[in-house]
Amino acid sequence: MSNVVFLDLGAAYRELHKEIDEAVARVLSSGWYIGGEEVSNFESAFANYVGVNRSVGVANGLDALILSLKALGVGPGDEVIVPSNTYIATWLAVTEVGATVVPVEPDLDSFNISPLAVEDAITSRTRAIIVVHLYGRSAQINSINDIAKRNDLRVIEDAAQCHGAEHEGQRIGGHSDIVAWSFYPGKNLGALGDGGAITTNNRELAEKITVLRNYGSDKKYTNLVRGMNSRLDPIQAAILNVKLKYLTEWNLRRAKIAATYSAEITHPSIKTPSMGPDVHAWHLYVVRSHRRDDLLAHLQDKSIECLIHYPIPPHMQRAYRDHGFNEGQFPVSEILHREVLSLPIGPHLSEADVERVVTAVNDFDD
Ligand SMILES: *Cc1c(COP(=O)(O)O)cnc(C)c1O
What per-residue confidence (pLDDT) applies to 366? Predict the structure, then answer.
């Protein structure tokens, strides 16, 4: 039997290949390969899509987070609250600018950090909070922003997994000081290579990041600050401009698959994700099982490709060994890392494949 692939990026390209090929050819023949109109066109379109004043294209999602922290002046001596359960990029950005990560446990039900947990972690050295909308579900960002305001803290959203998601009727992208995006190919809005952006309603911060991403320069060979080279490639910008038009429709396809899984997966010991009241981007459809590894093997046996997001929590990574975190220190994250399994989901997963996944999951001999 053919494989059910986790995410078919080739199919995504094939659906749009005429428009994408034309966009790429246009950039190639323009003779203009850094910055320029293709980048600014995408920046305006993306700002418009999320409903903010400004979007600044950068090289990738990790840089979007690093540049956000730099623009807010976060550095050595500052504490930044981060989720204990996230992709490691969230943490890497904080330690890259020399600040200290203060991990906060997620809620088991939503996978996101809660306002109460954030409030408990604030100290006199806290400068900022990075909120991740994990797996495409928005966190309680308005409540967290209220807490931040009361405590004079800055908020950055790591929106790498939630293109098109909403919170309290507003698209993610403008709730906080700065929102950092990744356009890694596998994201809901993915380039055909690396890409990233920040969105904000704060013009001053947008200007700072525009300068920081380009050697700290506002005019060629004039350097105001010590910046980075982290620019969005115009070829990727042209591709993203094509794909942005399909994001809403493709997210609806994801939502339909998620609804089918949630309705039809009835296995008594497999927990499907809770939904919440907001529009979910369904970047990942994550179930939990006490026998996750057996479930994974069972699905592999049926040629169904599943992934674990993520197998090792950041605090147990070698990269953070010098921080002295212990096993058991973040028990909720550790439960998640033992129990979560991401089922195939994407705009090009066929109904037949969705049914194959449902049947295989329900057949798991637990
Ligand atoms: C993908 C991802 C990033 C990093 O994005 P890159 O573009 O790969 O650098 C950051 N945070 C989260 C939560 C992600 O999923």
Answer: 73
